[in-house]
Amino acid sequence: MIKKIFLFLLVVLLVLQAFRPKKDNNGPTGLAANINNFVEVPSDVDQLLKTSCYDCHSNKTTYPWYSNIQPIGWWLDDHVDEGKKELNFDDYGNYNLRRKYHKIEEVAEMVEEGEMPLPSYTIIHTNTKLDEEQQKLIISWTDKVMNDMKAKYPIDSLILKK
Fold it and tell me: Could you report the per-residue pLDDT of 33-63, keeping only the tens digit for each?
């Protein structure tokens, strides 16, 4: 009986391999709407964003070998899709002013609370985990971006009144 169950699961797993999600590297990869064209991103912060954020938050996702194994590929695809819906650094220039401000604010919040990059991502990609100094660097950058935006635009164009 155990052999039959194991054989059945193996067959199901093999059949699943035929149904692969499309790798989502759609859209322009970097120039016109990239965040670097709209706010100053120092090179050290830019490198941290590319290392720790761009796989899920840009059009430059690097898919690991295990993304070709189903159902892991579907799970990764869902994470990438959700990440890009929340914030896509390659699409930042297409956001309205209020959304641009809010997304920078959320970057600071997520990094400060240790929610990004996701722990499930940093387990395998250990080089993406942000140490305290790197977190402070990103938070300092987001504070500067938000202060620059506040100095340039009226506050009611950046924040919804409650």
Answer: 889 999 999 999 999 999 999 988 998 888 7
Between CA 16 and CA 19 the distance in angstroms is: 6
Model's pTM, two decimal places?
0.78
Between vectors from CA 56 to CA 111 and to CA 132, what angle results, nearest 5°?
25
The CA distance from 31 to 91, in Å, is: 9
Task: Residue 121: name the closest of 60, 64, 69 by CA.
Answer: 64
Show the tokens assigned to 26.
């759609």
Query: What span, in angstroms and rounded, lies between the C-alpha atoms of 149 and 157?
Result: 10
Per DSSP, 30 falls in state S
Return the DSSP state at 47: H
Backbone angles phi, psi at 124, to 5 degrees: -90, -40
Backbone φ and ψ of 47, nearest 5°: -65, -40
- CA 17 to chain CA centroid, Å, is 26
Give tens-digit pLDDT for 140-158.
999 999 999 999 988 888 8
